[in-house]
């Protein structure tokens, strides 16, 4: 029966074959899952664990670090910690995908249909969607905040603690609603998160319900594309404004905001490198262009979450405040070691250790 396409196969098709005692068939892989394993590609079966660990470790490290280091802009720190929480969920999603791949190792064909219709698949798909949408909206929010600070540096409005907290709660609520809406009406959305083994509704196929196709298109090519355009426009305006005002204003006034803007520019650049392939993949699937499942698997396991793994490096480890804090810790550790090795004037050493802590 190889190479014979039978849509909606059922046992009724074989009732007229009275002499048929048994049959064997070789199911085709969709490139995402194979006959034996949930993840068809052995490289990605290993890589899913590596990416998941890097994402969770990096973002948890940033959350803890930001909690320990006192920052002048606490509202900005709150937004970054919230973004880290959203990115961490992507790592949790990948851990679950890797765990269920191990669980069904060698016999995935026996559990494929049950797995894609299971509550576990629906929940981790919801988790991935929540992480993706909250991350996009938080990045857009922080970009617009920097846009107002740089393009309109003398306006009186600055988001306070209550405004920032309200914005973050609203973004998380909106992201949660986007993720759970497909559960409200099974007739409209069908098995929204169970269209493939990785439980992520990126690719649209012929068998997908029109309501589900319209909803995923509105999310990926509506909300996310609009956010991407807003981010590009904001950064273009920011750097144009900086270049225009640098000649007439003191450069020191803008240095701090420009440094933050440059760092976020690289974050947006990595987002663009991640989201452009997703936009293209969604458009091609809507045009019913045949897309290999291997490509979808690489996008979901590698391209989509890699941004969550890079963000901690871009917005914390490369910042001047983090580097100054590390230098201060190393300097104090070196001075304490010197104190143990060479007896000197205690008051002089205490004064030398205290001086760096007064530097803002």
TrEMBL record:
InterPro entries: GPCR_Rhodpsn (IPR000276), GPCR_Rhodpsn_7TM (IPR017452), Relaxin_rcpt (IPR008112). GO terms for biological process: adenylate cyclase-activating G protein-coupled receptor signaling pathway; hormone-mediated signaling pathway. PROSITE patterns: G_PROTEIN_RECEP_F1_2. GO terms for molecular function: G protein-coupled peptide receptor activity. GO terms for cellular component: plasma membrane. The chain crosses the membrane at residues 42-65, 77-102, 122-144, 165-184, 219-242, 263-283, 295-317. Keywords: Glycoprotein, Leucine-rich repeat, Membrane, Repeat, Transmembrane, Transmembrane helix. It is found in: Membrane. Residues 58-315 form the G-protein coupled receptors family 1 profile domain. It holds the Pfam family 7tm_1. The keyword Hydrolase does not apply. This is G-protein coupled receptors family 1 profile domain-containing protein. It comes from Albula goreensis. The lineage of its organism: Eukaryota, Metazoa, Chordata, Craniata, Vertebrata.
């Amino acid at each position: 029966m190889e190479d014979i396409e039978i849509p909606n196969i059922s046992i009724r098709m074989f009732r007229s074959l009275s002499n048929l005692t048994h049959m064997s068939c070789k199911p085709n892989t969709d490139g995402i899952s194979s006959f034996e394993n949930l993840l068809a590609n052995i490289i990605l079966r290993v890589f899913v664990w590596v990416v998941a660990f890097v994402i969770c470790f990096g973002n948890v490290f940033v959350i803890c670090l930001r909690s320990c280091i006192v920052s002048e802009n606490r509202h900005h720190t709150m937004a970054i910690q919230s973004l880290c929480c959203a990115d961490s969920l992507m790592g949790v999603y990948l851990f679950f995908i890797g765990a269920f791949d191990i669980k069904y190792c060698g016999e995935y064909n026996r559990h494929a249909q049950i797995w894609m219709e299971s509550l576990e698949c629906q929940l981790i798909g919801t988790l991935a969607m929540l992480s993706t949408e909250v991350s996009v909206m938080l990045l857009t929010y922080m970009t617009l905040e920097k846009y107002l600070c740089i393009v309109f540096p003398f306006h009186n409005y600055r988001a306070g603690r209550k405004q920032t907290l309200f914005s973050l709660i609203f973004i998380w609520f909106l992201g949660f609603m986007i993720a759970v809406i497909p559960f409200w009406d099974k007739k409209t959305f069908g098995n929204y998160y169970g269209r493939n083994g990785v439980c992520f509704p990126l690719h649209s196929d012929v068998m997908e319900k029109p309501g589900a196709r319209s909803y995923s298109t509105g999310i990926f090519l509506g909300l996310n594309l609009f956010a991407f355009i807003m981010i590009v426009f904001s950064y273009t305006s920011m750097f144009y404004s900086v270049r225009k005002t640098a000649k007439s204003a003191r450069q020191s006034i803008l240095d701090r905001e420009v440094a933050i803007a440059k760092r976020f520019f690289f974050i947006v650049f990595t987002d663009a490198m991640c989201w452009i392939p997703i936009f293209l993949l969604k458009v091609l699937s809507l045009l019913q262009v045949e897309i290999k499942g291997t490509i979808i698997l690489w996008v979901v396991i590698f391209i989509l979450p890699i941004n969550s793994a890079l963000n901690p490096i871009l917005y914390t480890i490369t910042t001047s405040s983090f580097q100054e804090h590390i230098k201060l810790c190393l300097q104090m550790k070196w001075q304490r070691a010197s104190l143990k090795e060479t007896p000197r004037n205690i008051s002089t050493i205490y004064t030398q250790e205290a001086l760096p802590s007064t530097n803002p």
